[in-house]
Amino acid sequence: MGVLLTMAVPRQPSQSLAARYADRLQQFETAQTQLMATIASIDLSKPDSKVLLVGEIARCRRKMKALDFWLRYFEPNAYKQINGPLLVEWETEVFEKWEKPYRREGAGLTLAELYLEEGPAQQDSLLTLIRKSTNALATYKADSITVHLGEHHSFFLCNRLFLLNLATIYTTGFECPQPTRIIPELRDMLVDVTDIYQSYNQSFPQYPLTDAYAQLYQEAIAFVASQLLDVEAFDHFGFLRDYVNPLFALNQQMIQDYRVVSASNADYSLAGHSRSIFDKELFFAQNPKGVYSRVKDQAVLQSIDSLGKLLFYDPILSGNNRRSCVSCHQPTQFFTDTLVQTALQYDAQHRLLRNTPSLLNVMSNHLLMLDGKLLDLQTQAHTVITNPIELGGVEAAILAKVLSCGDYKQSLKALLKCTPQYDEVTFAHVVSAITLYYSKFSRYRAPLDAAIDKGKALPAAAVKGYNLFMGKAQCGTCHFAPTFSGIKPPYIGNEFEVIGSPTDTNYRSLSPDKGRFDVHPAPETMHAFRTPTLRNVAHTAPYMHNGGFKTLEQVLEFYDHGGGLGHHLAVPNQTLSADSLHLSPTEKQQLLAFMHSLTEEIPFENPPKALPTSSARALNARKVGGEY
Fold it and tell me: What is the pTM of this model?
């Protein structure tokens, strides 16, 4: 059992926003200097030396968390030097659409503490981690950063990211190495932000935080004060539903009312109009319309949708006129194939290497495919259609076959007026109709969404499952709301993880699939895969990149025993903890109940009754949905 928290709101006179920022920056820098002096003077061979250092790191983290509101937003890359959760990262967020991933080394307090836990520690290594953190602070003193303290825009954008992080990482062990400190750090940070709020209102009375926001925020502090210190006992669900999400709505309203504008790439994906963290339009990663991006007319969009549906079911897109998109992505099976481990190849004999991912909510992924090698939906469709072991098509031949069908030709030519950048129908028109069609099924909501927005209650077992998800089971350190995928605030990147998936449930060997390594070779990317969404997961078996697990119960067993490493497979770069979670049978059932609450209420459509006829008579024998 934990102990009840107590909390007091700061009573010191409020400083201006810029003065408060500078003061806290100086306090953190002083704490870092003191930490480095302790590391340099301590004898690491003594039994209690590590305990002493962990305590010093915790005190330094306290000063850092007082600044977290600003640090994460103003310069995310510098933050990785101050409190990076990983020694090396390769993801470059949404900007991978313009530049290749590059090696980014982490440093700072979390890694220093993890280093102490791993075994014998060297002073030089510890000093290097903290020195990099101290050096990174210079970034936050630059005029290019501090100038934003002189206007109201950045405050509300920082606050938005702060609230999103309250919903995702601040109540989990994502970057707090000691579970016993997660709730105390949350408590202290909430109080520190109260002080920031007071300073802001003093500095910008013309754009104040509303009374409604201030009152609800104080209630949030009181709620956390009433909770136990134990993160496993924390009511994550109640905190999100009753406080964080409503606060987010109020902040979004102020962003709109005060005409807040952003100059930061951190806001690249976030939508200003969303009033819920669980709004399906909270952020944007993909353009489902493709070449039809300019189309706003609903009647025209409906015609594109109808065209895309026909094409989705039509094996005319394959080299042999026998395979279609539906061969692997069956709409009534949540746009995957739940009956096979991996789908058949084009030759109808061999199996594909990877499991078919659902197309639902694919619009949320900045990087596509399980290894993240593709950047947009239209390229993904093109790649699958022309892949010799998938649909086996050739672009020019496929387009010619499509245009040999009078209905297709008429529809596509009529749509040319919507794409003035093109003089004639292209393959891009075909794939854009397909992506627009299937993307509409990502608009729908799940019981959890309605519960968070207070539309209806969630079963008690699902609520307990959510709290386990964010606490004891540690799922929330890799699967972030609202997509419950590897896309965390500010939702501009897809994380990749190495979990050690086996070839089968006997755990005889590690899956040989190199994953992300084949796209961007590096020691850290070997066997790494993009963390997928858990939405609709109860209906998208089999699981893992190779379809190795047939049931969610098998997946939970895998994670409960520490992934591949926990099952005695050789996975030297595993990012998942190898420690057992010690989940009880009841807790596993509650986790399953939560996962079922992520099943979206999707109105699946019936297949088309027939396909357009072609002037090439041999094509008119093709079947709706293909043959295999």
Answer: 0.94
